Amino acid sequence: MIAVMALNINGENIDDEIIEAEFRQIKGHFERTLQVACCERDPEFRGMAKDNLVSRALLGQESRRRFPEVTADDVTARLTKLIDEAGGEEQFYMNIGMVVKDEALVRDNVAGGVRLDKTLNEIYAPEPVPSDADLRACYQANLKHYMTEEQIKASHITKNLQGAKSRQDVYQTMRDIRIELLAGADFDKLAEQHRADEQQQIDLGWFKRGEFMEEFETIAFSMNEGEISPVFNTQLGFHICRLTGRKPPVARPFDEVKEDVQTRFIEEYRDQKFNAFLEELKAAAKIEDTDPEEGANCGH
């Protein structure tokens, strides 16, 4: 089968198979994060795929123009770093999908990364040295990134199925306990009466998301302080939860996060320079798209 040349960027052809692979990768990412169902956003994803490929081609072309030759030492240093980060040569080749090791091809690809790094270093230079006022302004503008995590405090009554006649019997017992609680019974006293053993915790203390089972946290974090939960189920059994405290997120002090703010300041500067540079390349480029517009196609 002859590949169709769907994109031409300054004379460099990108065939439809490459576009399709990029499209599938983007669509798969959005499907995995539950942001899309089937084909509703396929035209958008295909546009994103083409834009990604155009950007990569232009960056590669400009890097080769600026740095047509790179030293073998630079390539070796970058390749060694990539292998170390992957946890070894075998894992590195597995990560890049290369079944049979082809060092010449890998070094050629890595040389492209070296050229791009050198090009970006030129674009970013000289990087600014932010003042304290600059950092405080960045801190205020990005305050949502410097908040503490929400915490809650909860107590619970729990019963597992060990030794029970049936699942329904345990569930009914927990329903009866909840009826007592809603009628005003003391939560801690009932919890003590129904505790399986001394090791079973009643007061769970303060905790953040990710410290307990997701099913438990979904209920607990959705409750108001003082509220009694419905009877709910996890792999450990049936539960009734009472929320006894909540600490909302608050901003961490500037001095505590100053280093993170400085990192963000530089990253934002680099993003602005990179995006402006890329737009300049696109504006000057000759880009031909011969790929016809497609309707929704639900084939997988």
Short characterization:
The protein has 10 helices and 7 strands. The protein has helices spanning 16-32, 42-66, 72-86, 89-95, 103-124, 132-141, 167-182, 187-193, 214-220, 254-284; strands spanning 5-9, 12-15, 151-159, 203-208, 232-234, 237-247, 287-289. Strand 1 (5-9) and strand 2 (12-15) form a beta hairpin.
Task: Please supply descriptive tags for the structure shown above.
4-stranded antiparallel sheet, 52% helix, alpha+beta, 10 helices, 300 residues, Chitinase A, domain 3
Question: What is the fold's blueprint, element by element?
Answer:
Elements: E1 5-9, E2 12-15, H1 16-32, H2 42-66, H3 72-86, H4 89-95, H5 103-124, H6 132-141, E3 151-159, H7 167-182, H8 187-193, E4 203-208, H9 214-220, E5 232-234, E6 237-247, H10 254-284, E7 287-289
Antiparallel strand pairs: 1-2, 1-7, 3-4, 3-6, 5-6
Helix pairs in contact: 1-2, 2-5, 3-4, 3-5, 6-10
- Given as residue ranges, the uncertain stretches (5+ residues, pLDDT < 50) are none
Alpha-beta classification: alpha+beta
Q: What spatial form do the alpha-carbon principal axes imply?
A: elongated
Classify the helix fraction into a percent range. 40-55%
The level 1 CATH classification of the domain at 148-247 is Alpha Beta
- Total count of helical runs of at least 4 residues: 10
Radius of gyration: 29 Å
The strand order across the widest sheet is 4-3-6-5
